[in-house]
Amino acid sequence: MAWLALFLAGILEVTWATGLKYTDGLTRFWPTVATGALVVASLWLLSVSMRTLPIGTAYTVWAGIGTVGTVILGIVLLGESASPMRLLSIALIIVGILGLKLAH
């Protein structure tokens, strides 16, 4: 159950991080409210996962999911660079996340 909470927390991190782009520097009310709610939900699920998972593993996996997901959405939705170096870097983060999962 902790891993499910952690995965969902990571997905919500991707959503709120991407949502920040649409708040226009926190000046647009509804996107800011929605982003704030997603931040709270993501952190709550992260804290739930930390009841049983080691803090270093949980935080690193959460941040990794958020990083990889946000980069991918930036490429797909916002036309950001998909250079070989960026893709290799994403792959290395994924390998690190999998390593932490397997080492637990």
- Structural domain count: 1
The chain-level structural class is mainly alpha
Number of helices: 4
Shape: flat
The topology string of helices and strands comes to: HHHH
| Topology, number of strands | 0
User: What characterizes the major β-sheet?
Assistant: none
Low-confidence segments, ≥5 residues, pLDDT <50? none
User: Rounded to an integer, what's the Rg over CA atoms?
Assistant: 14 Å
Helicity level: over 70%
Q: How much strand content do the residues show?
A: under 5%
Distance between the termini: 14 Å
Mean pLDDT across all amino acids: 95
Organism: Methylophaga aminisulfidivorans
Pfam family, one: Multi_Drug_Res
Family: Belongs to the drug/metabolite transporter (DMT) superfamily. Small multidrug resistance (SMR) (TC 2.A.7.1) family. Gdx/SugE subfamily.
Transmembrane segments: 27-46, 58-79, 85-103
Question: Would you kindly provide a brief summary of this structure?
Answer:
The chain is an all-alpha fold.
Outline the structure in words.
It comes from Methylophaga aminisulfidivorans. The chain crosses the membrane at residues 27-46, 58-79, 85-103. There is one protein chain. With 104 residues, the protein is mostly helical. It has one domain. Helices cover 83% and strands 0% of the residues. It has 4 helices and no strands. Helix 1 packs antiparallel against helix 2, helix 1 runs parallel beside helix 3 (55-78) and helix 3 (55-78) runs antiparallel to helix 4. It starts with a helix and ends with a helix.
